[in-house]
Design brief:
The chain is α/β, with parallel strands linked by helices. It is about 40% helix and about 15% strand. The two termini are about 25 Å apart.
Length: about 210
Amino acid sequence: MNNIPSTSIEILKRLLRGNKQFIQGKYEAKNITIETLKELSDHQNPHACVLSCSDSRVVPELIFEAGIGELFVVRVAGITLGLNVIESIEYAIKKLHTPLLLLLGHDNCGVMEYAQKTYPDIKEDFKAILSSVYPVIENDKTALNDENKLAKLHTLWVEKYILNHSRIIKNAVLNNELYIAKCHLCHNSGEVSLLDDNLEKIKLEDI
């Protein structure tokens, strides 16, 4: 990968600072009123695109202390992938020019638990969801015994899959227009941790 765009780093810092505020109970988001919605009635300019789980406990706007219009959120069970999910992300990257894509997995994910219980069989129900998790298990069988490890490995797999199946997203990364941050939410602490391989490139000390 090329260098991480400075704009992406600054937005990532902003979101992580918001997460600290959320953890400390100092929620101060300003853009949460009808006035903000009216101002954005004919346009949007989100800072980042977030692919998160549909789980009712995972609410990116609250977790990152973001207001209306700040995040383009794509939510799907287990952050599993399908064509419509990828194209939704592509829209944020190509049309809205978001410089940061944040992949947000989490603890105690029902999709991961279900995949562990059913692997290696493909059930009649939830075929698309299982087909997005089973490759992770096939690559590392130890994930069958640790639900949260499976969730984190799956988040890393999601990035690789997206880059291999989306010309738009891959080109944005190669052209230093986009950075993909892999993250994981702990329910007990509320903390969002980074799973990135190249954290040494991100100066987060001042968060």
